[in-house]
């Protein structure tokens, strides 16, 4: 058996570690990429903001007019500082003339001094708009330069709007902290998810480790191949995914590739797809496959209430076969012999009484009449029914019918040769015996004339079996149920007789008609080939 000692690292732990590693790696890479993208977006947004602000300031009429005054800074400085302090995220706004002399600055003491940084040349000399990063009097900053033009279009100065890189860095750091916090939260969720996934997989595998599952699979295969019954399993699409050697041998399918093929293409008469649709298990069903009479159990496989497949076990001999033989063969003939013995004893008592009364002539006549009647039926059956077991059955049933005060008429056209083909004596006994017994049961409680007519006639292609009685017939409400296993209208019945008749007729490929016509009738045709 499998070794249930677990390995040092369980499957659940391996799944958790692997899943968690994948989650951490994925989130880490995503966090880095997001951080880079956010940093780039922040930088672009800052550059766009300072450039737009510089453009707005460069077009303010008051500032343009102030360039005509003797002291432009007196007008420009308070106006610019008001704009700067009311605008979030702007560190400084500096307005200069074409010589780079400041007219505004967050530090008033630096007004009148030249602009510092070395990157102002293109704006002052060429009138270009641009954004650059340079070290100014307040520190390293990202700043935009926009030239200022007079109302007549003459370039008269420039405006520079800047944000300290230290402030930009703080904004980026705040965003990164949020990204990393979200990443840690994601890793925590991933940890919970990996634990749930590992637990779910573990439960699905019923707590087994991979090496244990492998051992179980090997043991299962060994057991399946060891049994004498043929085993075939299909999935929920009717595809074969397991067939043992016993099944291949019984069905004469050795050497053929069966796995992965539809069951209907391999064994059309298997009826496994029917079980797949109905979900109803079927036991001890007769089938003729490749000339072999077998019995099969069909059992649906369920998982969480859904059918995921069907398993079938094939057998050549089963308890049902033995029961059928007991019910319809040996048991029937034994019952017939008992009836014969009982009738013989009754007749012996009559003869003994006549002798005691010294009615010798009457006794002699009685004996001769019995002998002639018995000899007549025996001669007829022996002459026309060459299959000994069926002949013995008819003789026994004829005797039993007299015990029940039922007239059993074997029609003159009855003729049956020895059974040597696909129709076995066991099947004939099952069919004929159960039909006659069923007719006797229908007449048992009936008063007045009671008769059963039987005919067994063998033709070139078929064997005809006909049984008719003058009983109450088949009730309309039971006509669809009489062949169901276990169904009976008799208090002490087992509901198996007509079920066995139907099973044997189906296995032999026969056809059956039945109904009511002044009693019940059953007509069966069984092909000889």
From TrEMBL:
| UniProt KW keywords | ATP-binding, Cell membrane, Kinase, Membrane, Nucleotide-binding, Phosphoprotein, Transferase, Transmembrane, Transmembrane helix, Two-component regulatory system
Enzyme kind, highest EC tier? transferase
Q: What is this protein called?
A: histidine kinase
Q: Which NCBIfam families does the record match to this protein? A: PRK11086.1, sensory_box
The record ties this protein, via Gene3D superfamilies, to: 1.10.287.130, Histidine kinase-like ATPase, C-terminal domain (3.30.565.10), PAS domain (3.30.450.20)
The Enzyme Commission number assigned here is 2.7.13.3
Recall the taxonomic lineage recorded for the source organism: Bacteria, Bacillati, Bacillota, Clostridia, Peptostreptococcales
Q: Which residues form the PAS domain?
A: 223-271
Q: Which organism is it from?
A: Alkaliphilus peptidifermentans DSM 18978
């Amino acid at each position: 058996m499998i070794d249930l000692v677990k390995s040092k690292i369980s499957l659940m732990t391996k799944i958790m570690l692997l899943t968690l590693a994948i989650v951490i790696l994925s989130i880490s890479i995503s966090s880095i990429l997001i951080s880079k993208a956010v940093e780039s977006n922040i930088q672009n947004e800052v550059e766009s903001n300072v450039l737009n602000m510089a453009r707005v300031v460069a077009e303010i009429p008051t500032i343009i007019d102030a360039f005509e005054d003797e002291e432009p800074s007196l007008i420009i400085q308070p106006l610019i500082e008001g704009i700067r302090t009311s605008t979030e995220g702007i560190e400084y706004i500096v307005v200069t003339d074409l010589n780079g002399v400041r007219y505004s600055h967050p530090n008033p003491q630096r007004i009148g001094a030249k602009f510092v940084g070395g990157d102002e040349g293109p704006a002052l000399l060429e009138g270009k708009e641009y954004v650059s990063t340079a070290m100014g009097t307040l520190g390293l900053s990202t700043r935009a330069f926009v030239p200022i033009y007079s109302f007549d279009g003459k370039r008269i100065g420039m405006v520079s709007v800047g944000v300290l890189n230290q402030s930009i860095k703080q904004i980026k750091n705040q965003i990164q902290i949020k990204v990393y916090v979200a990443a840690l939260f994601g890793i925590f969720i991933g940890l919970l998810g990996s634990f749930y996934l590992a637990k779910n997989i573990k439960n699905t595998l019923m707590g087994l480790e991979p090496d244990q599952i492998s051992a179980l699979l090997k043991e299962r295969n060994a057991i399946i191949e060891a049994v004498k019954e043929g085993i075939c399993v299909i999935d929920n699409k009717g595809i074969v995914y397991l067939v043992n050697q016993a099944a291949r041998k019984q069905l004469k399918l050795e050497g053929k590739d069966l796995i992965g093929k539809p069951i209907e293409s391999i064994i059309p008469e298997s009826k496994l797809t029917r079980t797949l649709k109905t979900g109803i298990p079927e036991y001890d069903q007769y089938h003729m496959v490749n000339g072999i009479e077998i019995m099969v159990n069909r059992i649906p496989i369920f998982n969480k209430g859904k059918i995921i497949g069907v398993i079938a076990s094939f057998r050549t001999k089963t308890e049902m076969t033995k029961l059928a033989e007991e019910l319809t063969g040996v048991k029937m003939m034994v019952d017939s012999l008992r009836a014969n013995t009982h009738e013989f004893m009754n007749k012996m008592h009559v003869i003994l009484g006549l002798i005691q009364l010294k009615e010798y002539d009457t006794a002699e006549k009685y004996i001769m009449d019995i002998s002639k009647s018995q000899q007549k039926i025996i001669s007829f059956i022996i002459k026309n029914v060459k299959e000994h077991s069926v002949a013995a059955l008819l003789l026994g049933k004829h005797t039993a019918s007299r015990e029940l005060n039922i007239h059993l008429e074997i029609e003159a056209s009855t003729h049956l040769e020895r059974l040597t083909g696909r129709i076995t004596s066991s099947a004939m006994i099952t069919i004929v015996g159960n039909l006659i017994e069923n007719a006797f049961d229908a007449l048992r409680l009936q008063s007045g004339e009671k008769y059963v007519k039987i005919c067994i006639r063998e033709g070139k292609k078929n064997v005809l079996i006909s049984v008719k009685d003058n009983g109450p017939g088949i009730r309309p409400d039971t006509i669809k149920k009489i062949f169901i296993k276990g169904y009976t209208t008799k208090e002490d019945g087992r509901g198996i007789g007509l079920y066995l008749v139907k099973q044997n007729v189906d296995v032999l490929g026969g056809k059956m008609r039945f109904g009511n016509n002044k009693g019940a009738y059953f007509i069966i045709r069984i092909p000889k080939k």
